[in-house]
Amino acid sequence: MEDDNAVETTYLGAIREALLEEMRADETVFMLGEDIGIYGGAFKVTDGFLDEFGPDRVIDTPISEAAIVGAAIGAAHMGLKPVAEMQFIDFIAPAFDMIVNFAAKSRYRTGIGAGLVIRGPCGAGARSGPFHSQSVESYFANVPGLKMVAPARAFDAKGLLRAAIRDPDPVLFFEHKFLYRRIKEQLPTNEEVFVPLGKARTHREGSDLTIVTYGAMVYKSTDAAETISSEDGAEVEVIDLRTLRPLDTEAIVESVTRTGRLLIVHEAPRFGGFAGEITAQVCEEAFEWLDAPIRRVTAIDTPVPYAPTLEDYYLPGEDDIVAAARWLLAY
Amino acid sequence: MRALYRCLWLTRALEERLETIFKQGHVVGGLYRSLGQEATAVGCGYALAGGDWIAPSIRDLGALLARGLDPREVLRQYTARGSSLCAGKDNTNHFTVPELGILGPISPLGTQLCVLNGVALSFRTRREPRVCLTFQGEGASRTGTSHEGFAMAAALNLPIVVVIEHNRWAFGTPSTAVAAVEQWADVAGAYGVPAGTVDGNDVLQVYDAATQAIARARAGDGMTIIVAETYRMLGHAQHDAQKYVPEHELGEWLDHDPIRSFADYLLEFGFESESTLEDIRSEVALELDAATDEILAEGYPPAEEARSRVYGDSALDADVPWTRGPEPGYEGLTSGRPGSPASHRGGA
Ligand SMILES: Cc1ncc(C[n+]2csc(CCOP(=O)(O)OP(=O)(O)O)c2C)c(N)n1
Questions:
Q1: Which among A156, A187, A218 is the end of a domain?
Q2: What is the ipTM of this complex?
Q3: Tens digit of pLDDT for each residue in A28-40?
Q4: Distance (Å, whole) CA A222 – CA A219
Q5: Residue B300 is nearest to which of A270, A297, A309, comparing CB atoms?
Q6: Which of A54, A78, B77, B154 suits A169 as a labelling partner, its CA being 20 to 30 A distant?
Q7: Are residues A177 and A213 in the same domain?
């Protein structure tokens, strides 16, 4: 439907809007984190929030990720809806204990859940070295009780964040910093932007090969698909997972049963990454439909290096995806 | 005195040089400065003896220069040269240099104190009269990791000096907004160790306090906390124009510039002449000109170096085939397994 009022919104702006809308609609929603109030956030996501919502709902904390997440859990127990910001997602590490031992196991142990969101910028490509560039999803993948979201589009960033805030369980929300200001979309104003957790989406349709990916790699995968389409005449389907846990296995399997070929692309290192889990699930569910081995294109198994030459080598590139796709298509 | 002045000036001039090449696009990533805080770093660096170890935070370049770090290493590091101490793999001052007793920090705040405790532990285990010194912003001192580090250093009576650089700001938030502490030396009470407060912009006061605390640690009497009262004269990093800082605050602290005050002191009491100080400044400028030319001519590391040095055994370098797509000639791990499309199904 035509939406004359659609507004061009960045990925970052979409996150901002989700927070604003949820905070305006529900006064139990509040935020806590470092430099989010007076300064308006390291990336300016919460610029002006302190003025609008006041210091009870936009809380500048000491540099204390464990205490931030701990307080979010306690507040969630009491019926509030906390959104905790990690200034960079790398700094979620000091809160690991709180997340994997307290938040994730709370409902299972006690019947009392911890509905909270921990959000922050992840991802490489900004020349920021090993501690401001990581993709941390796999650190948490083996912890039942956590949900994880990694949007690629502004629409999904907004819709999924709203869903995450309303979710009764702990959600880790990974915002790719490389997309913050690079992605701009027309977001509708005549319909509610809300995306339920746990549903993948088809970013590009195709019948010859499935690429399953998420986050910033959705764009590189799509570029690769366009190259293959124009140079090889084959059509690659690109599935954007959007939510990593719960994983939409059904959508992946459905696509693979049509294409018979699967390539998984992610920015995190390969060993123990999501691609391994997806491979296992597809082997279990759709082995008979596969016409080729499942392949993975990922970062190399190293920390994220700093020098441009090294970081570019570390990150999967469009060329790598094209080469892998061609190999699979020729198989 | 002359050496002290030179080191202060070198710190500032080197950072200014970094800023210049940052604006020219040569610095990769962010740049953090210590403008206005040089005296704390330099005073502490000078108080240590050979064989002692130091763990800087981001605003302690002066301490590393005082320890003898070649300014060229700083330029290499910020420009991500393959020849840099981190071989282009990590940034800023994240290098560890055993020969100079430097333990490089990592970004997650509060971590270096814990690790330095281990260095100090090794001194104690080997009955060596060596000492460790580290710095923290008052912001970093709030982390759980930092509290644990303090608690262990105190409990084990380790030969450590911790300098809390109270520069009023942590990134974009005034410390008063996120800490209930008024006298930062009071935090020592929680750990059961002594603390003192110094004017962090007075290099001689810092040097004296550090010297005493270091002597105490060397004598086996354990950790001391020094609170250096100072001010961060610039934003958190180059990208931060510090619009949130009240102007009068900057003005007041500008009057308290650590390098100018020290120069005034040297001149007033006749320790040095204006021409000596001028010579030092020109000499530093020449040294930095040469260093900058040299480092800018060097290059980034070769891309494949990204794979190396993950483990001590280079056979474990990250060369897993297919991480990035098909590798020409890769046959797979099993001889019966098809390694290329052509070998599969008879090439059909
Ligand atoms: C564990 C952790 N959380 C957050 C950050 C992001 N961060 C980097 S510097 C900084 C402020 C540091 O303030 P302070 O320790 O007072 O040092 P200053 O910058 O004032 O010298 C923050 C929040 C970090 N590096 N580590």
A1: A187
A2: 0.94
A3: 999 999 999 999 9
A4: 5
A5: A309
A6: A54
A7: no
